[in-house]
Design brief:
The protein is mainly alpha-helical and 327 residues long. Helix content is 54%, strand content 7%. Strands 1-2-3 form a 3-stranded parallel β-sheet, with helices on both faces. Strand 4, helix 8 and strand 5 form a beta-alpha-beta unit. The chain binds adenosine-5'-tetraphosphate (AQP).
């Protein structure tokens, strides 16, 4: 089975990325041949700092390994190192409609907050479709916010297959049962996010224990006193999900453990569970990040493997679309 997922290098990675991304990557790599892509080309679709992008790309590679990816077992690479991604994106843009892209919720949300809305922000889902399809992917472990992009990927693949002949396998999204959408601690009706959330409500994977404690202490809770996962209790439900993600316990397990206890104790114990989850990740991260030479060596290894695996699919695309190939 082929597994593929991508993650952007810009912005500090947060607990939502851990729940919907990192945690699933480490678990799914055991199920087959896995490809995890640092999608640096995606990152330039919104304003960014070039020096920061360079550092964050190495940070993210180290974080992927620190959260459990084994670069000898899985292919971990940067998108810009494999030119097939940019090429596939252009070819697929001819089978993607303007109307489809205009319906993308993420585009609508992100373009509202930008003064300069780049064409890249609009066409980004086509690049993402290419990322996934180039690897003949069966499953894509992601958070629920990516569902619409994944559906678009399937539609684009089907359209290409019916126009030019069977070329792509149709990928399925895999969303975690719990933690597929971690919410902002300050505004629990909004997802925890790099660009759209609040600073106090976003728990970063590299936050110190004191910062984590402070963020949970001031987390918004709901009226009432019960620690119960329910639609009318978005703040507490989010904290319960965070605790299940960090301890591996079930929702029922957390609810019964805190039955009859106050919000204060529950919030501080959720913070401690997150600290216990993050401490070993942060220690491994520091160790790996300390050796940029080794990081570059591993990135080169990943790029070589990814280029080799994606090349035949890209070639089929060119051939079926009628381009003259030089052999
Ligand atoms: N709040 C979330 N809960 C669960 N999963 C989430 N993901 C993102 N937010 C949550 C998942 O993380 C993976 C990587 O996403 P990305 O590459 O889009 O990284 P990002 O840009 O840091 O993610 P954000 O925070 O969502 O950024 P914005 O809001 O700026 O676009 C994906 O699998 C995603 O589903």
């Amino acid at each position: 089975m082929r597994i593929f997922s991508g993650i952007q290098p810009t912005g500090a990675k947060h607990l939502g990325n851990y729940a919907g991304g990192f945690r699933q990557y480490a678990a799914t790599q055991e199920q087959g041949e896995a490809f995890f892509c640092i999608v640096d080309l995606h990152s330039v679709s919104v304003p960014y700092d070039p020096a920061d992008l360079r550092e964050r790309t190495l940070d993210l590679f180290a974080l992927l390994v620190a959260t459990g990816l084994d670069p000898d077992r899985s292919t971990v690479f940067a998108q810009s190192h494999v030119s097939a991604h940019a090429e596939a994106s252009w070819l697929l843009s001819s089978v993607t409609s303007f109307g489809e892209l205009r319906r993308m919720t993420q585009f609508k949300e992100k373009s509202e907050s930008q003064e300069f809305v780049s064409a890249g922000l609009f066409t980004y889902p086509v690049l993402q479709a290419g990322d996934i399809l180039l690897y003949q992917t069966d499953i894509v472990p992601v958070g629920i916010d990516q569902r619409q992009h994944l559906e678009l990927t399937r539609d684009v693949a089907e359209r290409f297959n019916s126009r030019y002949g069977e070329t792509f396998r149709l990928p399925s999204g895999v969303y975690p049962e719990i933690g597929a959408k971690i919410m902002d601690l300050q505004e629990p009706e909004k997802k925890m996010s790099t660009t759209g959330g609040t600073e106090q409500g976003t728990v970063y994977l590299l936050d110190s224990p004191d910062v984590v404690r402070r963020k949970f202490k001031v987390a918004v809770t709901d009226s009432g006193r019960e620690i119960r996962h329910a639609e009318d209790k978005p703040g507490i439900s989010n904290l319960i999900e965070i605790m299940t993600v960090s301890t591996g316990d079930s929702i029922d397990g957390v609810q019964s453990r805190y039955d009859g206890q106050g919000y204060g104790a529950f919030k501080s114990e959720t913070a401690e569970s997150v600290i216990a989850l993050l401490e070993p990740i942060q220690a491994r991260f520091r160790e790996i990040r300390d050796d940029p030479g080794e990081l570059r060596r591993l990135l080169a290894l990943g790029a070589e493997k990814a280029a080799e695996v994606s090349r035949p699919t890209l070639e089929s695309m060119y051939e079926r679309m009628g381009f003259v190939r030089l052999g």
